[in-house]
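Incident log, support desk, overnight shift.

02:14 A customer reports that sequence design results differ from what the structure should imply. Their input is reproduced verbatim below. On-call engineer (initials T.W.) acknowledged and began investigating.
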């Protein structure tokens, strides 16, 4: 299985970036780690230059698996369902810019915090579910135009109050009849929200676009109590041919420690064999 690692430029405050730094150094480090790709979180859309990203990706033979250049929008509450409709409309006006960027580098665009919250300052967003579905339909139509893949990421209830389980996401994709939107399954969130990680993955097998892997404590795979072998076996049985994206809180881990985490995940893929269906 191909492996990517999460990578954030300086302005990205998310703690679960495996690599952090200026773009050039992100690709240099990813290349030294011998990973196949990066899940790239940029602090702002304006920071992103498609030709620069393509040049770095090609020069270092590191795919840009996922790109989320949206931190600035989220921080400004410019999301798909902002209670201020002008902000929600602004998100859609800006969407072509970041979808075009993703198309230029062949990356998936995640739908995580950009979906917006169900409540703001304890005030429910009126018609949130309807607004989210309408926004997803519009966003999916844009993704079809740009020929890119979107992925709804179920995120645990302590980080956002909507789409917490894989089934929540499957229901949205099916009910909205989305064509270019799949599911980004993140094991950390699934360990909190799912009755069974394996069953949840199995139930969404045909929609799995990307997988984020960390352990139960969001540390490196192998550093918590998740049994990852059944997870990898389930992915293989589902003929999942995407990446395993290591997205974990590694703190100030040395490059050797990160390399060991990559080796651990690669070994998981190597030791699990399933009969071809
Ligand atoms: C993003 O991939 C994620 O897992 C969420 O925690 C938001 O960062
Ligand atoms: Mn994730």
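02:41 Re-run completed on a clean worker. Output:
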């Amino acid at each position: 299985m191909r492996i990517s690692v999460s990578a954030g430029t300086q302005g990205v405050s998310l703690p679960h970036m495996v690599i952090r730094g200026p773009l050039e150094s992100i690709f240099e480090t990813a290349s030294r780690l011998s990973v196949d790709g990066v899940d790239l979180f940029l602090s702002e859309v304006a920071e992103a230059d498609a030709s620069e990203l393509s040049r770095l990706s090609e020069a270092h033979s590191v795919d840009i698996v996922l790109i989320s250049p949206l931190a600035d929008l989220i921080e400004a509450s410019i999301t798909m369902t902002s209670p201020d409709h002008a902000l929600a409309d602004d998100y859609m006006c800006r969407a072509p810019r970041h979808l075009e960027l993703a198309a230029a580098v062949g990356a998936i665009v995640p739908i995580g915090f950009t979906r917006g919250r169900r409540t703001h300052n304890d005030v429910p967003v009126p018609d949130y579910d309807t607004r989210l579905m309408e926004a997803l339909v519009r966003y999916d139509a844009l993704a079809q135009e740009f020929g890119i893949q979107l992925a709804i990421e179920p995120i645990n209830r302590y980080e956002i109050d909507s789409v917490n389980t894989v089934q929540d996401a499957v229901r949205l994709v099916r009910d909205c009849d989305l064509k270019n939107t799949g599911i980004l399954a993140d094991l950390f969130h699934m360990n909190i929200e799912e009755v069974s990680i394996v069953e949840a993955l199995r139930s969404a097998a045909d929609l799995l676009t990307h997988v984020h892997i960390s352990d139960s404590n969001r540390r490196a795979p192998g550093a918590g109590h998740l049994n990852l072998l059944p997870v990898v076996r389930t992915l293989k049985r589902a003929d999942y041919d995407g990446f395993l994206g290591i997205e974990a809180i590694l703190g100030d881990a040395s490059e050797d420690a990160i390399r060991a985490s990559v080796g651990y995940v690669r070994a998981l893929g190597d030791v699990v064999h399933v009969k071809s269906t």
